[in-house]
Amino acid sequence: MPRDPLSYKASGAGQGHGRDAPHGVERSKERRVVFAKAVTRLFDFWQLGVPERLTLLGLAPGNRLALQRYARGEPIAASRDALDRVGHLFGIQKSLELLYPRNAELQQAWMTSPNRKFHGRRPVDVVETHGLPGLALVRGTLDVMRGQ
């Protein structure tokens, strides 16, 4: 199996939202920093443009500054929406790794490639149209493909 190009697993990303963190708010902030770095690497791996990154995170089209802050390691917003989105994004990548363990190119292109399951639309377009429910739909589609 190829080396994990995202390295988010070893950092603890994708393992909950820190709600059970013993050190309260500071621990949650530390986890959100990990999420920011990991989601930036994930977007780089998927080769997403700025508009697509903003769409997937539910940010306004002109909010490039937030992406720059996340890339510098500032924490993802503490809102439930932001944390849910990041969790879905990590879940999508995990499903792609399980479905296509030897095909990193397919993992990279999947979010931006037309897909029959979405009537020829790209998964990122489904998220743009439907927001967080669209992101959950994309993740759920992959879960069904995996037989869960």
Outline the structure in words.
The relative contact order is 0.14. This protein is globular. It is built from 7 helices and no strands. The chain starts with 23 loop residues before the first helix and ends with a helix. It has helices spanning 24-46, 50-57, 64-72, 80-99, 104-109, 123-130, 132-146. It has 148 residues and is mainly α. The chain has one domain (24-146).
Secondary structure layout plus pairing:
Elements: H1 24-46, H2 50-57, H3 64-72, H4 80-99, H5 104-109, H6 123-130, H7 132-146
What keywords describe this structure?
about 150 residues, mainly alpha, 7 helices, about 60% helix, disordered N terminus
Concise account of the structure shown:
This protein has helices at residues 24-46, 50-57, 64-72, 80-99, 104-109, 123-130, 132-146. With 148 residues, it is an all-alpha fold.
Using the alpha-carbon principal axes, give the shape.
globular
The unreliable regions are 1-12, 14-23
Number of helices: 7
Oligomeric grouping of the chains:
single chain
Count of domains: 1
Give the structural class: mainly alpha
What series of H and E elements makes up the topology? HHHHHHH
Tally of strands: 0
| Rg | 15 Å
Can you summarize the main beta sheet? none
